[in-house]
Sequence to fold (388 residues):
Amino acid sequence: MYLTHLECTACGLRHDAKELQNLCTACSKPLFPRYDLPGLERVWKRDSLATREKSLWRYREVLPLARDAEPVSLGEGGTPLLPAKRFGAALGLSELWIKDESQNPTQSFKARGMAVAVSMAKQLGATKLAVPTAGNAGGALAAYAARAGLEAHIFMPADTPRANMIECRELGAHVTLIDGLITDCGAEIGRRKAAEGWFEMSTLKEPYRVEGKKTLGYELAEQLHWQLPDVVLYPTGGGTGLIGMWKAFDEMETLGWIGSKRPRMFSIQATGCAPIVRAFAAGEQSAPEFPDAHTVASGLRVPKAVGDFLMLRILRESGGGALTIDDAEMISITREVGANEGIFVAPEGAACFAALRSLCASGTISRDERVVIFNTGSGIKYLEAYTL
Fold:
């Protein structure tokens, strides 16, 4: 294991990776696992990946789990990068790709983060796990906690898609519905976790979900033969995937696997919940809570993200940006993507296709650029949002 310590993303304070941790004890900001990358660079070459299993655990050297520990796994990662030839051609793009995360266990990218986070929670002695969720994170925690033999306590808004509620309950989790938003669910966990003995698994409030999500970046680079795309469009709620990929790019450069070029990163949010878009446009370093948050894309209904400052920094460093899409456009474009590419994308993924159309029309993205859209989940989870 090459994990050396945990480091605060804001103040830089080091924390012991051998203990269960949530936020930085000094400033309450997210922690990142850090590795002996210079030492690893001498012994681990990217060519060694060719014979490894098709899962996120192929990158075990830059994941935190001890070498002798068994991962809690359901076969997550290794999702396809698919050419979107018809949709891309209609926009005049020569190279458009879809990273289809709906093919993960529990049908969303949340499986990546929870596989690593639950593996580490189990290794470090946690027995009861709790998470606030807009839907898919709850399903992923329920599945991986069941696999690990741990208790899962899921708090979700009462108007979460029914498929998510049923999924969590049928996987044996304790489900509590809250009249409010994901922030209200998080507040309820905060009030009860000490007395109940829960370890909190909220987005970026523990250090290891981001490590599972960063494998998106490793896979993307590997699937594109170690040449990163020019543009990445990512639907952003809590933002762990965006943040994790950026971390992966830095790690791979240190390992000598890629150069210094980075994609322009675009955060796509819903018109009814766009804290990052507003903060980006205003030049702010953090994002105030978005009032009256609402959208059918439940994964985007995150009015306040603990990693807001990290997302905003990435968007600016990359030369990217942030756009909003309204719910009606998300739903209407879903059928267009499906009819052209054969993928029933989640509303969050659909938002990226709508945003791409806007960016192409404005000339922000040119026809010769290599563009990757992340579809973070399956439209099957959102059937209430569609009408026959």
